[in-house]
């Protein structure tokens, strides 16, 4: 079976600085891969490379066997929550509409099939109650639900998530990550999930890609998120502590917020 | 001097049919372009472009060239500079802040050197009702139609890129190209609007109606239709009142536009507090 995403010996460098190198990764259909690492470790840049916006410095990258191309309909993209200002002239459902026909040129008359599709997607992400409201009046959780509907509108084989849970409260973090996980269970969509905090999605994660200063470790969460492995990656002593079902990474000389999340 | 005299109104009305047609079309185009001006956060750019449009028109007047053509050249140059140098909002604002006084200064210089009637000079800044004659109306109609049709053809990707740029880029929408295209359409609209309301008051057509519509509606269709309606009411209403008056058209257009905005704000805030108390 062709992997949904395949990276071989991938390297990305800006000027003299290498973000990451020797990255070998094959993501299978239905797999949930979390991309972790400190700020500036190149997590988001990895997503940009998959989207075809950023070229690799070396190595190869294939999406369903083909090189990355901008506008690939087989890839869905969920950004982090954005503050929209009150001059944003769209409603919640229009965000989903962008996912359905937002890139289409021509007279802006929406096909009946597209209208029905938007309605189904809105229901699927449980946004029926607020999809008619102005987008800028929506809460972060409401907006991110619609983002999931927007991203899956074209039935993508791969879902790229760039910190979609940031600044959401814990209940909404759980609700939105559950929506993403349901998509992968029911449709076999592979998920590449960039986050600074693995805890909200820990129960869904099959593998983690951990990036630190150009070094990469890939494996199951219980293999990678351990004191010895992370100490080696960070090249300093790091303690991985499990508190109930949450993982907390405490670094010596490193900000302790890598996976720290205050409990509710 | 009497400011208002409506005694020969019927005869006057016949003389300004062209202006009324041009005004109505200008309202429709201005309202629609204004919708995207608000969505793309470009009100300040409108002001900057209009000042360079004024410089272009004044330059054309001085050289004896076509005023509309001069105005188009000025605004397109300004729009392309703003689009090229100011991709990000902060950069854009400083580019505009630099261009604007330069354009205005240049325009004032050209007008000072112009030996003709002073009524013409003043008209470029503050607008005049009967400033558009036969062939000019045709140019205005042609430019307006080009802007309207182009906007409709790029409507969805342009709205996507305006509201949700990151996702649009990820989706392969040519955001950069659309941005430059919109700047050109905006420039064309500004140069048409300058002919009627004058360079200083273009904002009343390209910003106020859309801002008012946003206060009372939320979907793209509702906001854009209301914006077009408000802008058309302001221009046509302004022309009709100005006919019986010795005052230039622009104060009427801006006042109508402003009153619509004020009413929309009151209606909109009343609605918002009802929603809050219901929630």
From TrEMBL, chain A:
Residues 5-238 form the ABC transporter domain. Keywords: ATP-binding, Nucleotide-binding, Transport. InterPro entries: AAA+_ATPase, ABC_transporter-like_ATP-bd, ABC_transporter-like_CS, Metal_Ion_Import_ABC, P-loop_NTPase. The keyword Transport applies. It comes from the Bacteria. One of its GO terms (molecular function) is ATP hydrolysis activity. The keyword Nucleotide-binding applies. Belongs to the ABC transporter superfamily. This is Metal ABC transporter ATP-binding protein. It comes from Amnibacterium setariae.
From TrEMBL, chain B:
It is found in: Cell membrane; Membrane. Belongs to the ABC-3 integral membrane protein family. Its main location: membrane. It holds the Pfam family ABC-3. The chain crosses the membrane at residues 20-39, 60-82, 94-116, 137-158, 178-207, 219-243, 249-268. The keyword Manganese does not apply. GO terms for biological process: response to zinc ion; transmembrane transport. It is a multi-pass membrane protein. Keywords: Membrane, Transmembrane, Transmembrane helix, Transport. It comes from Amnibacterium setariae. This is Metal ABC transporter permease. GO terms for cellular component: ATP-binding cassette (ABC) transporter complex.
């Amino acid at each position: 079976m062709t992997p949904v995403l395949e990276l071989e010996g991938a390297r990305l460098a800006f000027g003299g600085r290498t973000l990451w190198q020797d990255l070998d990764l094959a993501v299978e259909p239905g797999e949930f891969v979390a991309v972790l690492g400190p700020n500036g470790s190149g997590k988001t840049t990895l997503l940009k490379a998959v989207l075809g916006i950023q070229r690799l410095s070396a190595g190869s990258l294939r999406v369903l066997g083909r090189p990355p191309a901008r506008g690939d309909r087989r890839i869905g993209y969920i950004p982090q929550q954005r503050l929209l200002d009150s001059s944003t002239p769209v409603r919640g459902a229009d965000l989903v509409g962008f996912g359905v026909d937002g890139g289409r040129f021509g007279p802006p008359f929406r096909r009946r099939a597209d209208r029905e599709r938007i309605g189904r997607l809105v229901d699927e992400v449980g946004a029926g109650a607020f999809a008619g409201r102005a987008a800028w009046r929506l809460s972060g959780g409401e907006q991110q639900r619609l983002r999931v509907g927007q991203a899956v509108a074209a039935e993508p084989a791969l879902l790229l998530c760039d910190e979609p849970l940031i600044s959401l409260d814990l209940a909404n973090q759980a609700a939105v990550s559950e929506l993403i996980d349901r998509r992968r269970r029911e449709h076999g969509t592979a998920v590449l999930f960039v986050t600074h905090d693995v805890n909200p999605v820990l129960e869904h994660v099959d593998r983690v890609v951990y990036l630190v200063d150009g070094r990469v470790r890939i494996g199951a969460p219980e293999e990678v998120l351990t004191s010895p492995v992370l100490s080696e990656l960070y090249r300093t002593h790091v303690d991985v502590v499990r508190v109930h079902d949450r993982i907390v990474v405490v670094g010596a000389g490193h900000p302790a917020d890598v996976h720290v999340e205050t409990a509710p | 001097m009497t400011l208002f005299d409506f005694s020969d109104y019927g005869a006057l009305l016949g003389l300004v049919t062209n202006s009324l047609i041009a005004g109505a079309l200008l309202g429709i185009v201005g309202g629609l372009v204004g919708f995207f001006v608000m969505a793309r956060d470009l009100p300040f750019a409108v002001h900057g472009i209009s000042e360079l449009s004024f410089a272009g028109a004044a330059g054309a007047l001085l050289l004896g060239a076509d005023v509309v053509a001069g105005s188009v050249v000025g605004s397109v140059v300004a729009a392309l500079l703003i689009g090229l140098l100011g991709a990000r909002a902060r950069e854009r604002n400083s580019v505009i802040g630099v261009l604007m006084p330069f354009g205005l200064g240049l325009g004032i210089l050209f007008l000072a050197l112009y030996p003709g009637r002073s009524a013409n000079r003043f008209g470029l800044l503050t607008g005049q009702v009967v400033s558009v004659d036969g062939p000019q109306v045709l140019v205005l109609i042609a430019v307006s139609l080009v802007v309207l049709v182009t906007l409709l053809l790029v409507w969805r990707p342009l709205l996507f890129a305006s509201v949700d740029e990151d996702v649009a880029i990820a989706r392969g929408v040519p955001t950069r190209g659309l941005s430059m295209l919109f700047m050109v359409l905006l420039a064309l609209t500004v140069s048409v609007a300058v002919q009627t309301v004058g360079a200083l008051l273009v904002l009343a057509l390209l910003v106020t109606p859309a801002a008012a519509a946003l206060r009372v509606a939320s979907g793209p269709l509702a906001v854009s239709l209301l914006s077009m309606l408000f802008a058309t009411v302001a221009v046509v209403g302004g022309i009709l009142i100005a006919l019986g008056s010795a005052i230039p058209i622009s104060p009427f257009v801006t006042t109508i536009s402003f009153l619509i905005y004020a009413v929309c704000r009151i209606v909109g805030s009343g609605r918002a507090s009802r929603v809050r108390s219901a929630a």
